[in-house]
Structure formats: C-alpha cells, structure tokens
Amino acid sequence: MYFPEYRARRTRRTSNIRRMVRETFLRVDDMIYPMFSAFGENIKKEIPSMPGIYQQSIDNIVIEAREVYELGIPAVILFGIPECKDSMGTDAYCDTGIIQETIRAIKKEVPELTVITDVCMCEYTDHGHCGVIKDGDVDNDETLKLLTAEALSHAQAGADIVAPSDMMDGRIAAIRSVLDDNDFSHIPIMSYSVKYCSAYYGPFREAADSTPQFGDRRSYQMDPANRQEAFREAALDVDECADFLMVKPALAYLDIIRDIKERFDLPLVAYNVSGEYSMVKAAAERGWIDYDRVMMETLIGMKRAGADIIITYHAKDAAKLLNAE
Ligand code: PBG
Ligand code: ZN
Fold first, then answer.
1. Which of 19, 22, 290, 325 is the most exposed place for a label (fewest CB within 10 A)?
2. Among candidates 242, 195, 199, 245, which has minimal Cα distance to 221?
3. Active site residues
4. What is the pTM of this model?
5. CA 180 from chain center: how many Å?
6. Fold adopted by 24-324
C-alpha cells in the first residue's frame, strides 16, 4: 500500500465516511461527575480555580444531582466538606457525617442515579493527610481501620459503589472483607489503584479544603516517574478483589492508562483531575482555545488510550454536546 495507489485521505473525504471509519466513541454512559458536598444550608460557592464547579449544601446538591441524571450521566462521585475536622477525621465514618447525609438525600430524591463515594481521610482530618499520623508520617495499618469504617458507613447510608483514594497498602482487601461481613457483598469497590503524587490536584484541594498542613503525600502516592510500579499496584488491587481499576491523573498518564488496559481485564477508570479541568477552563476564558473542542478532544484521547470510564468535571458540558448530536 503505497502512494499514489493508496491514498489515506480517501476515507476522510466526507463526514459519512469519517463516521464509518471512526474507531473510538465517547458516550454519556462513560462519564462520572464529581460533586462537593458542604455542611450548611443554601450554600452554592463556586470554586475560584474551577469555574462551573461548586461547594454546595445538600439542598443544592440534590438539585444538581437531578440535572446530572436528566442529562443521562449514570453516576456521581461525592466528596465531603464536613463542619468540623479533627486529627482522626471522625466525620468520615460518622452516621450523620456530611457524606452519609448527602448519600441519603440523593438516594431519596434521585434514586436511579448511581452514587459513588470517595473513601479517604484527607477531607476530614485537620492535618489534611489521608490517614492517621504517627511519628510524622501516615500510619498504614491504623489508617485501614478508619477507611474500613468509612467505607462501611457509606454503604450503610446507601452508596452504590465505594472508591478508596488513599493509596494505603491492603485497603482493598480490608474494605472488601468488612463489606462482605456486613451484608454488603454486592457493593463494588472502585479502586484508585494507580494514583500519582500530582500537582494537578491543586484546585481540588482548594475545593475540598484538604491541603496537607505539613509535608506532602509522597510517602503514599506514587512517583510520577514510575511505570513498573503501576503494574504492581494494579496487580495487588486485582488480587484483593477490586471491581474497577483507576489511573489518576489522566492527561499526563495516558501511557499508563494504555498499559493497564492491556494488562488487566477489569473496567478501567481514568480520573480527568481538577488541574486538567482548570487549565482548559482558564485558556478558554482567555479566548486562547475553543472550550468545546478541546474538552471533547481531551476526553476522546482518554478513551482512545484505553479508559472505559472517565471521572470528569466536564461531564455535564460534554453530555450536553453529545445529547445535541
Ligand atoms: C482524596 C482525593 C484527591 C483527589 C480525589 N480524591 C486529592 C488528593 O489526593 O490530594 C483529587 C481529584 C482532583 O484533583 O480532581 N485523596
Ligand atoms: Zn486523601
């Protein structure tokens, strides 16, 4: 197949032919929309670095959850901003905690919407780390006790899927066993399996008020330079019975998404994180890029890399475009 007999442009000539040879698709079904639930009433506070994304009290969350459902987006992932934070992150596993109340409210008002919960301690601890601090570092095994209590409490409040994002060792097995022992063997675990220590989480930490008060997360989140380690992390989660694997962030890690997709057969989630969203929004606000096109190109890129599902702050914007097609 050489030029001039073969001409690659022939299959790009008309929109119908382009449709026929298209290899990758983004569907509304592929997206999960993240939401930030804040303590209080009648609160809707835009996150300065994330235009269009809000910290909201439950009364407003429920309204947006209905909108998300009506757009055809199958699921939301919830993050909580509690009234009080303490060293043990008590609100995270309290039956009347911010997330537990939010789950119940959404499940009551929009029962068909799938509710995923982020299981981690950093939104609930006063020091902002993802677990219990001992000798200046996060203690793995002590943290597992809190994470299992948190995951169980989310399931009891009605969560459909729990998504641990802490990067402690052994958390998937620990959570699976506590869920199974309490009649929640039907609740899937979406593991943040391959989560890098990334500066792209900056805007999220503003949104969730979860910046570590000392040090950083390098002793538990992965070094951005590592690829082999991603395989080990994913393999551990598969052994521990995770139901979904995740790579996070997405944009600077498309190679890892492709690698994990090729090596493991579990549904693969890519997290299109806060900083990735902020960059697109900021450039679009300045008129430097076309928001709709850059957004869709980014999302299709993640799918082409191998993601089955994308957690993205763009979900509503993308769904509106897809529904209008
Ligand atoms: C909690 C958590 C974080 C994100 C999701 N869950 C922040 C972090 O690890 O610091 C980041 C999401 C985003 O940036 O959009 N551990
Ligand atoms: Zn955390």
1. 325
2. 195
3. 195, 248
4. 0.98
5. 24
6. TIM Barrel (3.20.20)
